[in-house]
């Protein structure tokens, strides 16, 4: 306590000595010269924002010295980025004019290190608002993100979905939430995303190696989920969201409250979802595909001139049925065996300390994942319970995974057009078993990595980004008395580098070229598995001789954009050395086929292309089309398993922001998604026929006694098509995916 008081006494005069600046001004329309109301102005580095009043006026107070980027955005206008340099208690005035535009507002990209607009970013990053995903009627978050080109999901029914980025999944795709990595035994085929949509603002997708920024497990890409923002200073807001899904008779409700003063911020959101077994296109329900989930997210923040800090917590508790067959037809919500019971706690602390023209950013996270898997009486020779009223049979598998992660980054003072970040990141992880069976042993994992990355801005608006990183991972496992697991102490290390260049080919034409290496240390399951894994119907054997995977990927993109037409084409080639995969070895244990991990060199290539047209003067009409493909092969020429089928998506969308009617921000859409045959299958994988799904939806906002309400109605697979996704784990049993589903969503802003 004495040390804390001493620190405060030393830090207080330092804090009070920093200069405080202010910025004020007005925002007007370039054409009409009229003031614009509710324009959003935001400093990404400071995490400080405000909006204009009815006179177009805004003001920022308590801004530290430095060179910052100010983002100005409003619906129907072109997003702007302005560099602002402040020093010596300056009072700066800005008069900003905005050009009308039918193109959607640009947003700040958080997952890359320099917080740029996508048009300024050297690395191609896809971004989607959760509000947009909700309007598409997705039942779960993992299903919703498949609307992003290049992103698919490996599904086990509706409730369990594992994200896939350009053919790579599981531990090759890193998931971030609240600014920290999610660790929830994601190696398992039937282990889902483990994140609820409530309290998520948007998701950013890095498609390609991101080991430079995030270390091991990011060799295939990153899903970066940004939590909802705190309220603006001196603002209190709240909302209630309700959703109903006809196919699963699913109900979802979440409610949130956020309030902020000049310095303190607070928010809280709680949610609940529940679904019965889903119905396929032929009218049958998939037994035990039911699931339910409870979610709580809360956070507190504190902000002064030179310090911004926030503490967030997320508790997610779910029960997920593991479907196996088209059995008893029922609408019960009580889970049958086998099923999973998962508790996931995430606590994160993020702080920024603004020095004279530089910045220190720290992030500390703690995740505790408790996974229990229950199954039918799993030992035929096990003795019957001797006493009546004996406690319910415990879980077959019970694993606790605790993870402490940290990141410290120093943003050096900007030198001319050069920005540089140096940092250190690490993780300490411990896995413990408490169930009757063990699939993987008790173990501890320690990661540490150091990085250096720079961004050079050129006067022609082109940019060069490059970086270097070194990582080391140590894995220490505990032996068991029955000899099923032995003690292992393994070390893996790797250097990784990335370089990218963004430049203007012609007016309105941007090109990006990126080269990056990535690596992934083999996970605990791949190294040590020894047992039957419920839900996979196989006996899994690890291989302690596995080495780490190493890849190099080339990404090239070309984008054209004007006020009414957007076009993009992205191509990639990904070469992976020592790719790890599992295959049967021809033996049988415990009446299950034995699958063993091995590795071989592999390659993946493909890309995405698409366009978006909103013709003048029909700015309310939007036509969007995108095509995506991935090819995955071993160096022997054999196909890799679980590669998504090629697909084509076409959407006709109508939007109106007219204020002349009672309903505002109206929209309607019709989408046809065509998935092609997948005949390029792995050695132990079957081909899948193509299919087309028709989806429709509409919605809008209206006010009731000054209370703003939003209504969304959508229909997915509206023609009730019977189909099987190539990435469905249930296709081997001939089980179809979900049939027609109508969803109704209502949001009430309090």
Provide structural commentary.
This protein is mainly β. It has two domains: 17-101, Sandwich (Immunoglobulin-like); 128-318 and 341-376 and 396-749, Maltoporin, Chain A (Beta Barrel).
Offer a few descriptive terms.
5-stranded mixed beta sheet, disordered N terminus, about 750 residues, Maltoporin, Chain A, 5 helices, 22-stranded antiparallel beta barrel
Topology:
Layout: H1 2-17, E1 21-29, E2 40-43, E3 48-51, E4 57-63, E5 66-73, E6 80-86, E7 91-98, E8 125-129, H2 130-135, H3 141-144, E9 151-156, E10 160-165, E11 168-169, E12 173-177, E13 180-181, E14 200-207, H4 211-214, E15 221-227, E16 235-245, E17 250-260, E18 264-275, E19 291-303, E20 307-321, E21 339-355, E22 358-374, E23 397-411, E24 418-433, E25 443-457, E26 463-477, E27 488-506, E28 509-520, H5 524-528, E29 530-533, E30 538-541, E31 549-561, E32 565-589, E33 592-613, E34 621-634, E35 647-656, E36 664-675, E37 691-704, E38 707-716, E39 741-749
Parallel strand pairs: 1-7, 12-15, 30-33
Antiparallel strand pairs: 1-4, 2-3, 2-5, 5-6, 8-14, 9-10, 10-11, 12-13, 14-15, 16-17, 16-39, 17-18, 18-19, 19-20, 20-21, 21-22, 22-23, 23-24, 24-25, 25-26, 26-27, 27-28, 28-31, 29-30, 31-32, 32-33, 33-34, 34-35, 35-36, 36-37, 37-38, 38-39
């Amino acid at each position: 306590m004495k040390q804390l008081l001493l620190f405060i006494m030393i830090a207080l005069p330092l804090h009070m000595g920093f200069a405080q600046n202010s910025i004020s001004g007005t925002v007007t329309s370039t054409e009409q010269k009229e003031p614009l109301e509710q324009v959003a102005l935001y400093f990404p580095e400071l995490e400080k924002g405000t909006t204009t009043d009815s006179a177009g006026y805004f003001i920022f107070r308590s801004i530290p010295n430095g060179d910052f980027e100010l983002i100005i955005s409003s619906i129907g206008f072109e997003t702007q980025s302005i560099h602002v340099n402040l020093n010596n208690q300056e009072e700066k005035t800005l008069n900003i004019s905005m050009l009308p535009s039918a193109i959607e507002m640009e947003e700040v990209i958080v997952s890359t290190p320099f917080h740029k607009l996508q048009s300024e970013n050297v690395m191609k990053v896809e971004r989607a608002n959760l509000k947009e995903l909700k309007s598409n009627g997705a039942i779960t978050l993992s299903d919703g993100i498949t609307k992003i080109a290049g992103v698919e999901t490996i599904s086990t029914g509706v409730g369990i979905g594992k994200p896939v980025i350009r053919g790579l999944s599981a531990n090759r795709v890193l998931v971030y939430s609240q600014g920290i990595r999610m660790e929830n035994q994601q190696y398992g085929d039937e282990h889902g995303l483990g994140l609820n949509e409530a309290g998520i603002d948007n998701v950013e997708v890095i498609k390609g190696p991101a080991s430079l920024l995030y270390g091991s497990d990011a060799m295939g890409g990153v899903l970066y989920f940004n939590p909802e923002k705190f309220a603006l200073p001196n603002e209190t807001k709240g909302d209630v969201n309700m959703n109903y899904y006809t196919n699963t008779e699913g109900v979802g409700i979440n409610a949130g409250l956020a309030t902020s003063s000049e310095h303190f911020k607070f928010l809280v959101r709680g949610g609940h979802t529940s679904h019965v077994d889903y119905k396929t296109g032929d009218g049958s329900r998939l037994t035990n595909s039911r699931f339910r989930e409870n979610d709580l997210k809360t956070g507190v923040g504190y902000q002064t001139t030179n310090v911004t800090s926030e503490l967030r917590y997320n508790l997610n508790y779910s029960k997920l049925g593991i479907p196996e067959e088209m059995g008893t037809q029922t609408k019960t919500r009580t889970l049958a065996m086998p099923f999973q019971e998962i508790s996931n706690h995430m606590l994160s602390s993020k702080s920024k300390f603004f020095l004279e023209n530089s910045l220190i950013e720290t992030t500390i996270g703690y995740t505790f994942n408790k996974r229990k898997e229950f199954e039918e009486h799993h030992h035929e020779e096990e003795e019957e319970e001797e006493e009546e009223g004996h406690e319910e049979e415990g879980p077959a598998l019970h694993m606790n995974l605790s993870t402490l992660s940290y990141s410290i980054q120093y943003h050096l003072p900007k030198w001319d057009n050069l920005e540089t970040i140096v940092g250190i990141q690490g993780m300490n992880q411990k896995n413990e078993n408490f169930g009757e069976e063990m699939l993987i042993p008790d173990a501890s994992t320690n990661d540490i990595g150091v990085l250096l990355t720079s961004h050079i801005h050129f006067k022609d608006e082109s940019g060069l980004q490059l970086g270097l990183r070194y990582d080391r991972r140590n894995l220490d496992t505990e032996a068991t008395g029955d000899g099923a697991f032995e003690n292992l102490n393994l070390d893996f290390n790797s250097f990784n580098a990335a370089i990218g260049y963004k430049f203007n080919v012609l007016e309105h034409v941007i090109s990006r070229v990126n080269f990056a290496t990535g690596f992934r240390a083999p996970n605990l399951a791949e190294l040590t598995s020894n047992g039957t894994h419920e839900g996979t119907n196989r006996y899994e054997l690890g291989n302690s001789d596995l080495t780490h995977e190493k890849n190099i990927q080339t990404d090239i993109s070309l984008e054209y954009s004007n006020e009414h037409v957007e076009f993009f084409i992205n191509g990639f080639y990904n070469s992976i050395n020592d790719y790890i995969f599992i295959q049967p070895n021809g033996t049988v244990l415990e009446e299950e086929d034995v699958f063993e991990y091995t590795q071989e060199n592999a390659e993946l290539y493909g890309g995405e292309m698409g366009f978006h047209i909103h013709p003048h003067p029909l700015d309310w009409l939007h036509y969007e089309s995108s095509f995506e493909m991935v090819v995955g092969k071993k160096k022997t020429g054999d196909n890799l398993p679980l590669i998504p089928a090629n697909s084509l998506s076409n959407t006709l969308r109508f939007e109106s922001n007219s204020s002349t009617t009672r309903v505002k921000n109206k929209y309607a859409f019709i989408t046809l998604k065509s998935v092609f045959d997948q005949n390029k299958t792995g050695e132990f994988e079957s081909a899948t026929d193509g299919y087309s799904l028709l989806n429709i939806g509409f919605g809008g906002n209206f006010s009731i006694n000054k209370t703003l309400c939003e209504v969304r109605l959508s229909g997915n697979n509206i023609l009730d098509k019977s189909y099987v996704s190539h990435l469905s784990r249930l296709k081997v049993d001939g089980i179809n995916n979900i049939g027609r589903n109508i969803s109704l969503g209502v949001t009430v802003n309090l």
